[in-house]
Every structure is written in structure tokens, then in C-alpha cells.
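#struct-help
A.M.: can someone run this one for me? Single chain, 689 residues.
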Amino acid sequence: MSGVPDAVYRLDGQGRFAYLNQAAERLLGHRADELLGRDARDAFPALRGSLAEERYRELLADGRPREFQFFYEPGSRWYEVRMFPDSAGAAVLFRDIDVRRRTDQERDDQIRGLTAVLEALPSPTVLVGPDGRILSTNRAWVRSSEELLPETSWPGREGEDYLTVMTRGLAPQEHAGLAEGLRGLLADTSSSDGRTFAFDYSCRTRRGTCWFHLQATRVDREGRVVVTHNDVTDQVRARQDLLWRAQHDDLTGLPNRARLIELTGEALTADHGGGVALLVVDLDAFKTVNDSLGHQVGDELLRLVAGRLSEQVRPGDTVARLGADQFVVLAHGCDSAEAAALAFRLQSAFGRPFAAGEITVPLSASIGVAVARPEVRDAHHLLSDADAAMFAAKSSGRDRVHLFSPALREAARWRLEVATRLRGDAIDQLVVHYQPVVRLDTGEIEGVEALVRWQHPERGLLSPDTFLSVAEETGQIIPITRWLLRETTRKAAEWAAEGLALRMSVNVSARHFSTETLVRDVRLALQDSGLPPDQLVLELTETSVAEDPTRAEDQLSVLRGFGVRVAIDDFGTGWSSLAQLFALPIGTLKIDRSLLAAAERVAAGDTGAVLAAIVGLTRTLGIRSVAEGIETPDHLRMVREAGCDLAQGWLLGHPMPAERLPAWMREVKEAGGDLCALAIAGRAVPVRG
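D.P.: on it. C-alpha cells below:
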């Protein structure tokens, strides 16, 4: 037995040493010649009554080998002992395992301590050994696994390979990420305690998809790792909900502007700019509906519109809400013809009225269409094109579909320039031209209408239709009107001092009602100029008054109370209630030129019958009538026969600068003073620069 590395000795049937190898001599602390022939219990008294003696007697009795661990108290060390029967007695092999035993004990103590810590943790937690196997788990791990895993699965148990356990419920890609991180943590034997690895993953469970934040921490140099699984499902779902809300409209649930831009950008990139179309859908006159029926009904109508538009689009297309009463459809795989066809289909969604509770409301929409070209990569650019097309559709009469063209981009750039300049120095470039208003019974000039113009430094003199609509949109119409009131009342007062008593008519925007500064602005202008209030006429369109009749009536009543006259302009172009209109404190009704043209078409032989009915109604109510757009002698004869009080138009006098008006009036007076007679005779006085 000299080749055996363990300590070996033999005992005879009486328990005396019969043989010892060198390893046994070293471990027993005696030479062989000191022990041979001696009873082992005499040589080592501590063996009497010990586990070693008991196992030796059992071996002699049944002849079966024995293997056990033995603590020898005099040496205070642990030994591993194996006994085998032989012909003389027994052979004993033993080795010193004190260091290993104490290390194992220390490890077990550590594991018990760690297990106690794991139990105190609320999150599912496991202790993993250096070989990747589970050493311990806490109750939260078992409970969570039983609640979440499918019935065919079971919680990971002690002794199982942790990564194998984690294949239950994880997608392959996520499992690969977990495996790479954990193996790196286990394999790095050079690292100190406290090194961590964090990993977020989702898991298929009985409750659907759940999310966990895993944190693995190396706890000792032996390589044991504590792995904690924190359930962050509520936080993830809260973040997802927050992200969804950030990208969607609260009212309709549709994607919002930010999300639309994102989706459009992705589509432009994926399709290389081709086949992507945006359709901007703007509800016509929705503010009036909202103001008259209330925001609760208005919100319900917007939800209904969102639903109908979503029903009309194709699979894969997206309906979004830009805000207010504007929607956008993102369409894929469209050329211009297909995008236009989609626009008309969207328009058909408004063919039936919308029922909001017990109220049925007819709605229409103006739709602008822009189809991306291959070079287009910017979503904002495409949306701007579609918006320009929508603006053109609305400007052409509403309830229209308009396709984008480069000319519209130029128009959009012009609107931007106008909006920018009107906020800057453009108000100093405004000028006023004055058009005569003539009495039809005498042909005398009773007053003038002030018409604002823009003396653009590059484009020359611009008419109001090129910039006032932009001023209306941006709110710059308010400072422009204030300037116009000051300028015109000052000029009218100057003319009156020169002997030209002309009633001054000034157009006022509906926006001035909403700011509720109109009364103050008019009073200041009259006070500064000294013009008598009855020499000022404020002109408002019937559609502007109809937007907020109550607010308009309140402010107009105050103005009328201190003498300012009020006229309704463009009568015949809107859809306001006559009863509502005539309830306002108005003194003059201006009949639009379109009504003259209509009267000519439908009245046949009796061309004045339609106008006569309108004039008769106004006269009954004590309201004077003014016929606009008098351009031919036939127009003049028709409005005189209908009984109109006043008239204006190019036949009677073009708009002219302030410095030209006094001289022109003198020329009229020298020609007889009756402008109507001069016009019918073909002798109208021209306006010369």
C-alpha cells in the first residue's frame, strides 16, 4: 500500500496495529516501530467509546466496509475514514479533511445566512452557485413562479441550472442577453465582491406579458451570485400609457401631430419619398357650431368625425388629429389620382348629418391633398404642402378638395411673409384709398368708404385681398383697424374743416368683438380727431356678426348709443337669420354686388323686383340701403328703381388717395354735381392720379 496517497494502517482482530504507511506515520504523529503490536485504543485513548471504535466493531461483526467523517478531539481536526475488512482484521484509510470540512461549514453557514437575507426580500430572488446552479430561493420566488408561470411549468428548484429554468417564458433573444451577462459575471474570478449585472426582460405569464428588472450581484470570491427579479410591470405600463398619451389626442384617441410627423417621416424613409400622401381635412365653420351648441356637443361631433374618417381610409392608412377641427390622413402607396379619390371618399363621410345626442348637425370639410415626390424627405414639408392645399380649398368656397401645386407653396410663402411683415414695420406702409358713396335721389356725394392698401416696397400697391385674410388669421387685423380708425377719423375731421362734410365708413373685423376693445378704440379715435360720432359708420359683414351675435349686439348698442352709425356689409353673401340680423342696432344695409348679378339673371323683365323687396323690408325697419358694385348704367337704373338710398361702385367713382379726393369732388361739382346723371350720360368724372 505504499503507493496509496492516503494514510493507511491495518489492525488485527484484537485491534492492534499490524501495518502503517509513511502517510499514516505523519498524520498519527508516531513512527511505525512505536505503534506496531500496540492496541490502537491504548496508543490513542480518545478512540475509546468513539464513533471510530463503534464503526470498527460493526465492521468486524458484519464484514461490510464503512465510510464516515470523524472529529478527533485531542487534535481538534476532522478526518475522512474508510474501513475495509481483510483476513486478519481491518484495513483503515484516512485523510485530514479539516480545512475542507471547515470551508464547507463556513460555506453552509454563509448560504444559510444568505438564505435568511433572501427570505426577507420582497422580490423573487435566487442564489446561484459558481456552476450556475440554484443554491437557494426565497418564498417570493416560489410564489411568483406559481402565480405567473403556465400550469405545465414549475418554479426553479435548488440544484437546477438557473439559465435552463429561465427559458420558461423568455423569448430566445432576451434569454441570450441574460445568459451572456450572467455567465460573464460568474466567469470573472478576478473581480471583487459587489460586481453587478442588470437586465430588463418581459415574460409570458398567465396574466399576459409582465416586465421584470433583473439585478445579479456577486456576493463572494467563490463566485456565488444573488439574482433579484423586481416586477416592474406597473411602471412599464404606466410609461407605455404616458407615451401613448404623449402621441395621441385625448379627445378622439387618434395619433396627434407629433406622432403623425413621426409616422410620416418613417413612411417617407421606407418608401424613399414616393407613394406617400397627406390629406388635411378641415371642418368648415366649426367654430360657429362649437360656439352655438357648446363645447360638449362640439367634442362629441369631433369624435364622430374621427370615427367616420377612420371607416373611410384603407388598411394601413392612418387618421390623425392635428388639433381643433383639423384631421390628417396619412396614406401609403398613392399617386395623385388615388390620393384625390381617397379625398373624395373622405368628403362623402360628411354626406349624412352627425347625430350628437338629440341634436343633428350637418357638417362639411375642405380637404387639401399633397403627394410626396421622390426628393421629399421632410414630413413637415409634406404637411405644409397639404395645409397649403387645404387653405386653397377653403378659400375657393369651402366643401372642396384641392391638390397641392408649386404655386400654392408660393402662396403659402407669401402668407408667411405677410404675417411676418405685419408684425413688423408693414403697418407704416399702409395707405388708405376712399371710394365715394352717392345719394341716389340727388346724385350728391354723401360720404366715402375707407379701403386700406399696402404700399409694398418691392411689389408696389397691394389690394386688401392679398393681405387682410392673413391679418385676420394672425390677429394683426386688430392693430391695423386701430390705425385705420385713427387715420380715417383724422382725415374726415380735416375735410370737414375744409368744408367737405363726408360721412366716413370703416370696415371692422369680427375679431374686434372677441377682444372687446372695439368700443374703447372707436372712442379714442373720435376723441383724438374731434370728428362727431354720427359722421362715422362702422361696417361689418353679416357672417362676422353671426359668429357671436350676442357679443356683437352688446358692443354695437354701446356705439350706437353715443352716435356712431352701424352698417351691415356684403348683405346677401352669408346665411344669417334675418330676425337675428335686424335685431342688431344697425342703421344701414349694404347690398352685395353678387345680389345685383343674381337679380339680373332671375328677374327677367322685372329686374328690380328682388331688390325692391329687400329695400322695402329695410325701409319698413327704418334702415337705409346702399347698393354696392355699381359698374354699369343698367345697374344704376335698377337700384334707383328698387328704391335704394345710396350706391357706390366704379361707375360712380373709383377708390382714390386722400389727396386726390377734394379736387375730384370739385370737378364733380363743376360738372353739375349729380354723379348719377353724369354716369348715365356717360360723363362720369375720371379719377386721375
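A.M.: thanks! The longest strand covers residues 445-456.
D.P.: also worth noting: The chain has a mean pLDDT of 85.
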